[in-house]
Design brief:
Length: 160
């Protein structure tokens, strides 16, 4: 009889240890990637061009599209020139910004590329309304995304 009671106690403890992690509802953080598209107008910059219009979109799951900060930089070979202008993505992931023209480079180059970088972000999904059933703490880790535009041609200065 003692062996039966001790066997039941061991089984109860082992079942309790298996059930406890599932009862807590902890889930691992989901890593969410994606892509970012970048387009620039005009595609050729000359001495009369003052600003460029940049636009594009973030392709990711719905929780990682909206309210993301986009930073811009001009890339000329190995030289990266960050810009102070930023943009924020809308609910569908689209963004737009007005940027200054690329600075004159020395020695002059024929083209530069606009690089857009989206900051990483952590989102927690669940209901915040009273009386609603709370989802069990799903957490999404929205990863940093980087994309480059097509080359922006820099026209040489006119000779007089």
């Amino acid at each position: 009889m003692k062996k039966l009671i001790s066997a039941c106690a061991v089984c109860a403890v082992s079942v309790g240890l298996v059930a406890v992690p599932n009862a807590l509802g902890t889930k691992s953080v989901k890593q969410v990637g994606g892509t970012i598209s970048v387009s620039v107008t005009p595609t050729t910059v000359d001495a009369t061009t003052a600003t460029l219009a940049a636009s594009g979109s973030v392709a990711s799951n719905s929780g990682c599209k909206k309210d993301r900060t986009v930073h811009f930089a001009y890339v000329d070979g190995a030289t990266v020139t960050p810009l102070v202008e930023t943009a924020s993505t809308k609910g569908n992931g689209s963004y737009s910004a007005t940027l200054p023209r690329p600075a004159a480079t020395n020695p002059p180059t024929s083209s530069v590329v606009l690089r857009a970088t989206v900051d990483p972000l952590t989102r927690k999904v669940g209901s915040k309304k009273k009386g609603k059933k709370h989802k069990k703490g799903r957490v999404f880790n929205c990863l940093q995304l980087t994309g480059d535009s097509a080359p922006i041609a820099i026209a040489p200065a006119p000779t007089v």
